[in-house]
């Protein structure tokens, strides 16, 4: 029996309020309106941003909400005017959309499409309404994706069709963490062959940076992390040396400058801590070192350094979603995965069912997982 045009009842992990575990509920998902796509989600990763919003610290956070933004799925039906995907297509929802018409999309220097920024931040579709209900209450959308549900509704500009040969429980991770780090090295820093790089924080994002540095032909890739358990696994991703700030009684930037004859060519902050952001900048080589901020700091926090650090030729940059124009790039990254250039499988350390989704959050908080993938 076709579900097209009908409300679908399915299971979702609902965040009813801040600071509480997710609860598995039967929800109702409306059909897609014009320009929208209803997707059956088959797998999703769990990312720090989901945890951040769930914690209540996100000033934009609204409840009750269906979180999740690292999903993979199959198109169930499309709304009026949708042409780039059709029912049955394998797709990855994208929290950075690509409308291809706004000022940002038309500028090759940025990937930050602004077409639906305001409504996406408010947790609603562009017409101000929502497509989810549970127990008589409407549920908010999240980052334009809401992948913690068996079915979700997203905009056509927030989705891309990917090669069906790729398993969705792996390429779902191309929805956030992997492109973020990989693109930070390749698109934002534009790491050159023979470079010395340092990566602060060896979670999924930092390890993806390591893959990007390796792909670019970096010579030394120094991993900086306070969890020594990360080093063995990081070698597999191309980290060549490991520095634990806890092993030293001087600032870590001084240690790194000493190890590298004056500093790094490229550093990457993948923690979200304003102190390590400063260390990462100051670990850069005078005259040309570039530091890229990827980690997301807490609301209201500020970075600082002495301006002389910049006057003497260091550059501070930042990046979201690795600088990738999302709909153009994610299908290409899927192809890189299929041609064994981009090893996504190594990121999946745990697999859980939807009912165990809170366990995936626990594995992330305790530092045990690189990524735990939730299967529907
Ligand atoms: N800019 C973007 O588009 C974007 C996208 C996704 C995630 N992020 C952010 O990237 C960051 C990393 O995400 P992740 O999923 O890899 O996180 P993660 O928690 O898996 O990894 C962080 C790592 O940093 C280490 N660490 C913590 N404090 C440290 C310190 N003081 N010194 C050295 N190492 C330290 C931890 O041991 C851990 O290995 C987060 O802030 C996340 O919000 C940004
Ligand atoms: Zn994320
Ligand atoms: Zn746009």
TrEMBL record:
InterPro entries registered for this protein in UniProt: ADH-like_C (IPR013149), ADH-like_N (IPR013154), ADH_3 (IPR014183), ADH_Zn_CS (IPR002328), GroES-like_sf (IPR011032), NAD(P)-bd_dom_sf (IPR036291)
Catalytic activity: S-(hydroxymethyl)glutathione + NADP(+) = S-formylglutathione + NADPH + H(+); a secondary alcohol + NAD(+) = a ketone + NADH + H(+); a primary alcohol + NAD(+) = an aldehyde + NADH + H(+); S-(hydroxymethyl)glutathione + NAD(+) = S-formylglutathione + NADH + H(+)
Sample GO molecular function, one term: S-(hydroxymethyl)glutathione dehydrogenase [NAD(P)+] activity
GO cellular component: cytosol
Ranges where the Alcohol dehydrogenase-like N-terminal domain occurs: 34-157
Enzyme Commission number: 1.1.1.284
Biological processes annotated in GO: formaldehyde catabolic process
Pfam families named among the record's database cross-references: ADH_N (PF08240), ADH_zinc_N (PF00107)
Domain of life: Eukaryota
UniProt entry keywords in alphabetical sequence: Metal-binding, NAD, Oxidoreductase, Zinc
Cofactor: Zn(2+)
Residue ranges occupied by any Alcohol dehydrogenase-like C-terminal domain in the UniProt entry: 204-336
Family membership noted in the UniProt record: Belongs to the zinc-containing alcohol dehydrogenase family. Class-III subfamily.
UniProt-recorded name of the protein: S-(hydroxymethyl)glutathione dehydrogenase
Record organism: Chilo suppressalis
The organism's taxonomic lineage, starting at the top: Eukaryota, Metazoa, Ecdysozoa, Arthropoda, Hexapoda
């Amino acid at each position: 029996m076709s579900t097209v045009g009908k409300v679908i009842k399915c299971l979702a992990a609902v965040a009813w309020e801040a600071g509480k575990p997710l609860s598995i509920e039967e929800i109702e998902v409306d059909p897609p309106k014009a320009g929208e796509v209803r997707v059956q989600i088959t797998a999703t990763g769990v990312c720090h941003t989901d945890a951040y919003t769930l914690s209540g610290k996100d000033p934009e956070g609204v409840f009750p909400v269906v979180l999740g933004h690292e999903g993979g799925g199959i198109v169930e039906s499309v709304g009026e005017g949708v042409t780039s995907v059709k029912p049955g297509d394998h797709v990855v929802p994208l929290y950075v959309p690509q409308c291809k018409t706004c000022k940002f999309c038309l500028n090759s220097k940025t990937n930050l499409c602004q077409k639906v920024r305001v409504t996406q931040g408010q947790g609603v579709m562009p017409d101000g309404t929502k497509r989810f209900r549970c127990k008589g209450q409407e549920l908010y959308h999240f980052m334009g994706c809401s992948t913690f549900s068996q079915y979700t509704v997203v905009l056509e500009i927030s989705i891309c069709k990917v090669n069906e040969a790729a398993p969705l429980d792996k390429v779902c991770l191309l929805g956030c963490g992997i492109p973020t780090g990989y693109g930070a090295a390749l698109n934002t820093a534009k790491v050159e062959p023979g470079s010395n790089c340092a990566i602060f924080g060896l979670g999924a994002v930092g390890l993806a940076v390591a893959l990007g540095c390796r792909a670019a032909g970096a010579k030394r890739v120094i991993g900086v992390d306070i969890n020594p358990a990360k080093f063995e696994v990081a070698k597999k991703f191309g980290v060549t040396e490991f520095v634990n700030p806890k092993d030293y009684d001087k600032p870590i930037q001084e240690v790194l400058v000493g190890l590298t004859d004056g500093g790094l060519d490229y550093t990457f902050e993948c923690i979200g801590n304003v102190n390590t952001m400063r260390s990462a900048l100051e670990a850069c080589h005078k005259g040309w070192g570039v530091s890229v901020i990827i980690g997301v700091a807490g609301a209201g926090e500020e970075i600082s350094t002495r301006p002389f650090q910049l006057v003497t030729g260091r550059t501070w940059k930042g990046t979201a979603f690795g600088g990738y124009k999302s709909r153009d790039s994610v299908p290409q990254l899927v192809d890189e995965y299929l041609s064994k250039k981009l090893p996504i499988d190594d990121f999946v350390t745990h697999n859980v069912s939807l009912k165990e989704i809170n366990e995936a959050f626990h594995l992330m908080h305790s530092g045990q997982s690189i990524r735990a993938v939730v299967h529907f």
